[in-house]
Each structure stands twice: as C-alpha cells, then as structure tokens.
Write a structure and sequence with these properties.
- The structure is a homotrimer of 331-residue chains.
- Chain A is an alpha/beta fold and 331 residues long.
- The first copy, chain A, folds into 2 domains: 161 residues, Aspartate/ornithine carbamoyltransferase (Rossmann fold), CATH 3.40.50; 150 residues, Rossmann fold.
- Chain A has 12 helices and 9 strands.
- Chain A starts with 11 loop residues before the first helix and ends with a helix.
- Chains A and B meet through helix 3 and helix 12 of A and strand 2 and helix 4 of B.
C-alpha cells in the first residue's frame, strides 16, 4: 500500500492549501500528506486534558469569529466545533439554517457573503449536497477559511482525523494493523474519510464489510478489501468500526439490504468480537442505534473507544482551527 | 412541624452529595439540611446587585462548560441557567434536544456520554420523565454534576430555592408564617419543591389550596393543610403563591376541575387578597395566564414579588453552580 | 427640502431620548437631529476594520447583557446584533420566541419583565406588530434600553442608518444626490427608515419607484417623488436601492401588482443601470431574490455595495449600543 499521489492541480486538495502549502481550508483528506496529517494529530494531542481537568484553552482565535452553518441537522458535530472555537477564544455564531430555506446555489453564497461581510473568518459547513464546501471555498475572500463538517456521502474530514487519532493512541503501528469498517459503506461519508486517513497513514489492511448492496464502488476505495460476511471481516482485526444504520431512511434501502436480518448478519456484538484480536478496539461515529448495528454492552465495554472518539473530535477541531489561524497567509 | 429525617441511603438525597457532604449534584430538595439550604440562600444574596447595576460576576467557572439539556421547552429557566453560567465565567452550550429525537432510555445516556466526553462538566437537565436527573447522575463520571431544572411533576429544586429566598427577603421569620399555594397542586413540580423547601425551613403553616381534583396525595405533603376553598386558603396568609393553569392541557383536566369556573373559584384577585394579611406578598412561578389564575393588576401591584422571583432565580442558580464548583471533590 | 421639525412631545422620538437629550432607546429615526445622526455614523466608522483584520472590539458593554427577541424570523439582523453586542463585551442572549407563543399584549410585557429581572439591559426587538418597540419602551425600568430591529412595515432604524452610512462613504455630498428606492415601497420598513434618514441628511432628491399598487401614501413620504416607471426612476440616479420582493407573500399581492411582469417592469439590471449616472452605486437590504428584483451579476458587480451594507450594519449596531451605554443616565 502506498500513500497518495501528489496533489493534482485544481482539485479540492490543491484548493485547500494556502501560501507555503499550509492548510487554509479543510475540504478533504485526499491529497493531504502523511506529514501534514501527523502534525495535525500531534497538535490535537496537545489539546487533550485528563478527565475532570478543565479543557485546554488558548487565545489564538481571540477576536475572530467562527460561523457554524449546518444545513443538515447535527447535535454532536455542531457542539464539537462550537466548543473547539470557544476554547480557542473565538466568538462562535450558530446559525439557524436548513435546506428548505435555500432554493438555489446562489443563495448559499449570499449567506456566505453576508457572514464574510460581518467578519466571520471561519465557515464551518455541513450540507447534504456534494461539492458545497469546495464551491464556497472558491468564492470566499482570502481571509476566510471553510471547514467541511460533513458533505453529503462524500467526506467528513475532521471525523476521519479523529478516527485515526483514536486508533493511533491504542495502536500506533499502522503498518501492521487490520481495520474493519462495518455497515453501509456506500452512503457513508464517515467510511470514506476514515479510509482516506488510514490510507495516508499506510494502514496494513482495511476491510470494508457490508452487504453487497451497501458496498462502495469508488475507485478511491480500491485499495481496501471488500468483505460481505461479518465473520470474515472481524477475524483477527485490530480495530472494528461499526457504522450507523440510518433507520429514518430504512424505507429507501429495503431494496438493497435485508433489513430485518441486518442485526443478525452485520450487527457487531460481544460474541462476534471474539473473532477479532483479543485487544481489538471498537469504534462508532455516533449517534448509535444500540441493538441494531452495535450491541449496547459492547459499546459500553472495555474494548469500546467510542467516547474517546468524541473527546478527540474536539481536540482535532481545535488543532485544525489553530493550524489555519497560525499559518493563515492573509492575516 | 419538624425538619426532614436524616438522608436515607440510596436516595436521590444521598446520591447528590459528594465528598465531605457537600452538594455534587442538585437533584432534589428532599433531605437537604436546613443549614445547607440557608447557606445556599445566603450565597445567592451575595450575587444580587441593585437594579441597573451590572450583575455580579465571578470567574469560578472559568474554563468550565455548562450544558443546557432541555428535553421540555423552556424559555425562562433555560435563560436563567444560561446567564448564571456565563456570569460565573463558564462556556454555556445550549443543545437543541427534544423528546421526539429520543426513543429509549439509552439514548439520553448516549447524549450525556457525548457531552461528558466533550468536557461538559455541568449537565442542566429538564425532562418530562420522572427519575431522569437521578438516572443520569448515576451514570456520569465523577467530575460531572447534574442539575435538575424541572423533572416531570416531581420536583424543580432551584425553583423551590428561589421561592424561599424571595419569601425570606420579605418575611424572615418562617416559624410564624402562613403560606398558601393555590392551584393545580397535583401536577405541579413547583408546588412540591416549594413545599419541601418551606418544610425544611420550618414554616409555620403551609396551605395547599385547590379543587379536590387537583389536590395532591403525596405522603411528603401530609405536613401541609389541604384547603378546597380559596377564601379559607387566603385568610390571614402572609404569602400567596398562584400556580400556572396549563391551558394547553385543559382538555385533559376537564374531568377533574370545573374549568369554566376556575377563575371564579380559584383565581387570585386584588379583591380576594383582602382576606390575607395586609402586608401579604403574591408570588407566581411564571409564565402567567393573566386573568385566569391571577389578576393582572395584582401581578403588577405592590404586593407582587414576581419579578423578584426571577431575579432571585439567576442568583440561586449562580449560588448552586458556585457551591458545586467550590466543593467538587473530583476537581 | 428641509430637515424634520422639532421633536413632538409624547412621540416615539421623544420617548427614545434620555437625560441630556442622548439616545436611551432606538425606536425610530423620526425626530433624530442631523447632528445626532452624523455622530452615530462617525462612531460607526470608527468600528470598521480592513477586510481580514480582526473586527474592532471594546469592553464598553462588559458585564452587560443584550437580549435578542426576534418575534419574526431573521438570520442576518439577529446575527448582526449578536456580533455587535459580543464585540463590545456584552453577554448576548438569543431567545426562541415567536408570535404563536404570544396571544396578547400583556404576555410580551411579561417576557420583557422577566428579562429585565434577569438584568438584561438591552432588549433588541423585532416584531410584526406596529408600535411594539415603543409599547415596550414605555414599560421598562429606567436602566433598560429598547432597540427596534424591525417593526412591522413601520420602521427599521438601524437599517436606515447603515444605508446612509454606506451612501455617505461613496457619495458624501447629500445635497446633490439623487437616490432611487425601487420596489414594494408600501410594505417596506426598509424604505421608510432609509427615506427618513435621507431626509434628515437633506438629500437632494429621493425617488420612490414602484407599481402604483405598491406606492406608499404616508404623509412622511410626501417630500419624495413618486415614480411609476423604472426608467424614469433610474435616469441620472446616483444611488439605486432595490427592495426585496417577498415571494412567500406573492399570493397576497397579486391584486396590486402584475407579478409575472414584475422583473420586466421593475427588475434592476445591468442594462437598465446604464440610465443612472456612470458611477452610481447599487444597494439591497437582503436577502436578495436574484433574477427577480435584482440581476445577479449586478449584485456581484463593481457598482454593488451590498456587502458593504452588511459590514456597516454591524458597525452601526455597535455605535448605537456604545452610544447608549456611554450616555445612559441610569447607569
């Protein structure tokens, strides 16, 4: 397995770099160098505190404003960016926006231009449409940064970073790791960004475990092994990440998966985890459907690192914001 | 009338105490000692400012995060905790949550675990379900505190504290006081917590004034006098607290009360207040239905201490947060 | 054209003045002196920063609380007041309120009394009802200030101020200016406040350009020229302000305007702007319906000062808040 090729011109990967090759936006993990990724993970480590201690703070964003534009509903990711921004000294503006109030491409830009004109320097954007973060990034002034907080089924880069940060803490030797991501790979931006980050860190083996109807066809995922039986996916794995089944969309996916038997066939349980390595860790991006894609007692058990993922999420978002603030050519 | 018996093991009262017997959570007023309650009232006094002066501030919660989890709608209590937290230097996170997004017991815990992992140290919880604050308190890590901001019809401890704080300001001699609470006692957490606080402070006489269908059966309220005629309830009272009639639920309560005549029978008016002591004070937890359970001109008149209750509410919440922060064994 | 007559007793204009004749509330631009207005514009200039620089900050509102009470939905005006308050050091409380939760006049006062009792010193109010800001201002304690953030179709004073601030930056010689406001004048609080501000600054000529069914009948607007053909309105204009067509209300206005042909007849386009002076500027209060009342490429073009209006809006709100804080007799 080899790391990514050089950043192609005109790509999101190129678009997100500012002067000196530092991040100006965070749109994608594609094309991010191994060194750049490790630097972010290291920076995020420095934002961790022991449980119960007050969280780390800094004033690097003092006087700056972070705008949270979540065109899709979110509780945890929004809260995570909110706290990350405030703990770096920023003013955080949470906007009430939703897709229904937006009829066409221009009007999202008008919202962005309005915030830009109010001196909002960071636009944290979640949207159900593919390409929206890059579209925004192409239109903002040079002092503004765009952070992708979840883009359709395409990518969720801070989630990918917090996932590899969590894995690295427990299993630092990526070259010898077997990682299994289990569930609806096809529609999952979490899987895509985790896969991208794992590839950049040169993971030994990545298994994408799903019913055939939920397998992904992306060329970018060809380096990974497709597995359509859970037992084969879990066997000797070091890391198992269960993905959320979006029950609110169940009617849409009946044609592609035997949903009544999903838990029997693809639910990650304590019993089934015996196939994995004894010290394997269990991950989930949340929110969980306990008893569906993951057994509750497994989520709460010793192998689970699910709440560590949440903690690391705040630290990763602080690291990204601080990195951009520090290296911003326009400031 | 005697104060409460000692705190029974395994009760909410015991659960809410940390090391050294100080409050770690605030779940209930049951079992709180008279001394502990008076200490909180005294601390709250120190957070008051003259009208027009800036509110008192402190940095005791600097670097800490308060999460407002209101699973039931609220404007005033949420705003009160929000301002209390910020005026003590905390970051306050207001979460958009509602019962519809929560299907079972586990998922509220997952929300809590997520916030805990984001270093939210105080969980301010309002919920329509009995036992939820204690349930959460049993599951959080030892550096986390749970504050009950309204629990079903069971309790609303900061409301009870602000009520006795307000009474004490005007009528410090509790042993010689006659207090009348008027309205739907049965479904009122406000009545229960006020009654509990008054009992702890050894009030002379508490009258619970309601139509028979709205009387409460709780053993905890047996120390109080049940009165089913408003005139009998008001006669020579020092303090009269009118409860909100929840008109949005009127259809549910038609069987138990003659709602068309409610105002005639149980509406507290200026005329009727002539039965009470000349210097009696009038209270209401808000929001009021003027012209229903309370006459508007009475609410705005000289006897009314309704806005003082609001002011004292912020001070009480600051006192509780500061007390917990100061005595927190885990920090 | 002459400036306004002296402030009539009992008017909103009088009501909004505190001790020494300084602003205590901002309810209306009517009756504001030319000097007072220019002082506010000058103060707002001092709150501007170069793009990319952090916004200006001050601690003049440190320890004070600003409450945003938007009984009508708003994104940009709410965000603008929110950032203005925070950049002056205030705590800002955004309240979830809407008309549906409010049945009668008294209950809005109870919300205000509650906030007043929580030491909210500034009430920023948007409401669909005429007279609400003044009604509130008549009832608050003397340390509380009320800021009109949009009142029915009556007025929107901070919008009027930001509009003349933007015009002044490009065209300081008001006596020789021709300003055209285009669109639904009749229902527009933006048009009324802009007209008022322009009148106070003694603008050379104000044209109100609309279909006859959207013309305003107000006596206050008699100083302006009514024009019912766009070409006549634009000819040799220095400033062109297009108003938003509220498409969500289109069914209500079909009787008064030929909506299918609105864009043909009253849409401001690049082609049509050739009738105006070559250096004319184009304004819009936002949010825009691109392709309806304004051509998108015009909104994004060199003549457009639309994002400057947004930037100036934050500065104007900071100037108003700071002015009131500085001159507040009750503090």
């Amino acid at each position: 397995m080899t790391p990514n090729a050089a950043t192609p011109a005109g790509s999101d990967a190129e678009l997100q770099l500012g002067e000196g090759g530092n991040l100006r936006h965070l749109l994608t993990l594609k094309g991010m160098t191994r060194k750049a990724m490790i630097d972010l993970l290291d920076a995020a480590e420095s934002f961790l505190s022991p449980p119960g201690d007050p969280p780390q703070r800094s004033n690097i964003l003092a006087g700056r404003t972070v705008g949270n534009l979540f065109f899709e509903a979110s509780t945890r990711t929004r809260a995570s960016f909110d706290l990350a921004g405030r703990r770096l000294g920023a003013d955080v503006l949470n906007l009430d926006v939703n897709t229904s109030s937006r009829k066409k491409g221009e009007s999202i830009l008008d919202t962005i231009y309005t915030l830009e004109a109010m001196a909002v320097d960071f636009m944290v954007v979640r949207d159900a449409g593919a390409g929206i973060p890059a579209y925004i990034a192409r239109h903002v002034k040079k002092h503004v940064s765009v952070l992708n907080a979840g883009e359709a089924d395409v990518s969720h880069p801070t989630q990918g970073l917090l996932d590899v940060m969590t894995i690295r803490h427990h299993k630092p030797d990526f070259a010898n790791l077997v990682v299994a991501i289990v569930g609806d790979i096809r529609h999952s931006r979490v899987a895509r960004s985790a896969a991208q980050a794992l590839r950049t860190l040169e993971v030994g083996e990545l298994r994408l475990v799903s019913p055939p109807g939920m397998a992904a066809e992306d060329a970018d995922l060809e380096f990974a092994r497709r597995v359509d039986k859970l037992d084969d996916g879990l066997r000797d794995a070091d890391v198992v990440m269960a993905l959320r089944i979006q029950r609110e969309r169940i009617q849409d996916i009946e044609g592609i998966v035997d949903i009544d038997n999903y838990t029997r066939d693809f639910g990650v349980t304590r019993e089934r985890m015996k196939l994995a390595k004894p010290d394997a860790i269990v991950m989930h991006p949340g929110p969980m459907n306990r008893g569906i894609e993951i057994e509750g007692s497994l989520a709460d058990g010793e192998q689970s690192v699910i709440t560590e993922q949440v903690t690391n999420g705040v630290a990763i978002r602080m690291a990204v914001l601080a990195h951009i603030a520090r290296s911003h050519g326009a400031w």
